[in-house]
Specification:
Layout lengths: L7 H10 L16 E6 L3 E6 L16 H5 L4 E7 L5 H17 L4 E7 L6 H21 L7 E5 L6 H11 L5 H15 L1 E8 L4 E5 L6 H21 L6 H8 L7 H4 L6 E5 L6 E6 L4 E7 L7 H22 L6 E2 L5 E3 L5 E3 L2
Helix pairs in contact: 3-4, 6-10
The structure holds guanosine-5'-triphosphate.
The site of guanosine-5'-triphosphate has 21 residues, from helix 1.
């Protein structure tokens, strides 16, 4: 939700439909509520509300509030940081007060958006100003501790994916267990940082307990892109029977399936300048584990693979158990997915 032209449809199109940011210039204004569903590691729906509609103050078309807010887990409010934001903040305040009365379970995530082109100091000033205006108004109305969080975002860099990652993480039951698994893996394998990615959207749904680091997120997320593009081109490559016979003949004398280390997609790469290998391992058709290793740890790949195997099994079980408990919520997609054979294909 948010004012007209604040960037709502652009965010949804860039994150969930891989629209290049420049092409959002040609998006038309949203006239009615757009619902978008994605069957990913959890079932998402994104509802894009037209900026000109105020659902709480629309006497001619009263909305069914329970149908809209009864089941959602998070409400994202987009504020255009490059425009006068006083009216947007006033509408956001009114919305929070409405939600606090009947739907306190909803996390309110404020995206202070279009911060590209603004200096770091100015961004922080705006964030401080908006936070104070909202907190003051809420405490004047007697509302304390409302679940409101702020994110500085832009579709022109990774900040929008990072912010969405944080929003989604809050909706995952037992996130702490996922994080503990990744933290243990990092300790055992001496990884610097590990992320569990939703490959469709490049949102990371969990990471280990070391401090957040935008640079590692960016490199891992770009790596997911590279592998997906590569697999899209070569993944469906069928070997001819003669070629297969040669590969299975001497000196290997083994069926191709038995020669590969694992049935899923896996990949490793060493960056020449940093000397730090990056590894990717598919968990299922929606999720991939990506980790940045310490310098020189490439020789230990066999042990690392064994540990990663165990964690991948654990993650698979985790999602089987928690799938039924996942909150259906805010967001969508419908793009490429890695299927069970490590091949990227369209649809699910
Ligand atoms: N500089 C900059 N421009 C952006 C960003 N995100 C969106 N825009 C631009 O903002 C304009 C409006 O974007 P929309 O996504 O159509 O806005 P909306 O909130 O969906 O608008 P309504 O459908 O009218 O409610 C477009 O020209 C986008 O290119 C951003 O992060 N930075």
């Amino acid at each position: 939700m948010g004012q007209r032209r604040s960037g709502k449809s652009s965010i949804s199109s860039v994150v969930f439909h891989k629209l290049p940011p420049n092409e959002t210039l040609f998006l038309e204004s949203t006239a009615r509520i757009q619902k978008d569903s994605l069957n990913s590691f959890m079932e998402f729906q994104v509802w894009d509300f037209p900026g000109q509609i105020d659902v709480f103050d629309n006497p001619s078309f009263p909305f069914d509030m329970d149908a809209i807010f009864g089941e959602i887990g998070a409400l994202i409010w987009v504020i255009d940081a490059q425009d006068d934001y006083l009216e947007a903040v006033a509408r956001l305040n009114a919305t929070i007060l409405h939600l606090q009365r009947s739907y306190q379970h909803i996390n309110i995530e404020v995206f202070i958006h279009k911060v590209d082109g603004l200096s770091d100091d100015y961004k922080l000033d705006i964030q401080r100003d908006i936070t104070i205006r909202i907190q003051d108004e809420l405490s004047d109305q007697g509302v304390e501790n409302a679940p409101v969080n702020f994110h500085l975002t832009s579709i022109y860099n990774h900040s929008i994916f990072e912010a969405f990652s944080k929003v989604i993480q809050k909706l995952i039951p037992r996130l702490g267990q996922l994080e503990a698994m990744l933290t243990n893996l990092c300790r055992t394998c001496r990884f610097e940082k590990a992320y569990l990615f939703d490959v469709n959207t490049k949102i990371y749904i969990a990471t280990d307990s070391t401090p957040e680091d935008m640079a590692s997120y960016e490199i891992c997320s770009d790596y997911v892109d590279v592998i997906i593009d590569f697999t899209e081109v070569y993944g469906s490559w069928q070997r001819t029977p003669e070629w297969r016979k040669r590969l299975e003949g001497p000196p290997w004398e083994q069926k191709l399936e038995d020669q590969v280390a694992c049935e899923w997609a896996e990949s490793g790469m060493v960056l020449a300048d940093a000397q730090r290998p990056i590894m990717l391992r598919e968990v299922d058709r929606f999720l991939a584990l990506v980790a940045i290793m310490k310098e020189g740890s490439y020789e230990k790949m066999p042990q690392i693979n064994m540990n990663v195997d165990v964690v991948v099994k654990g993650l698979t079980e985790f999602f089987e158990i928690t799938k039924s408990k996942m909150t259906p919520t805010a967001v969508p997609g419908g793009v490429t997915a890695v299927n069970g054979n490590g091949v990227v294909g369209n649809g699910h």
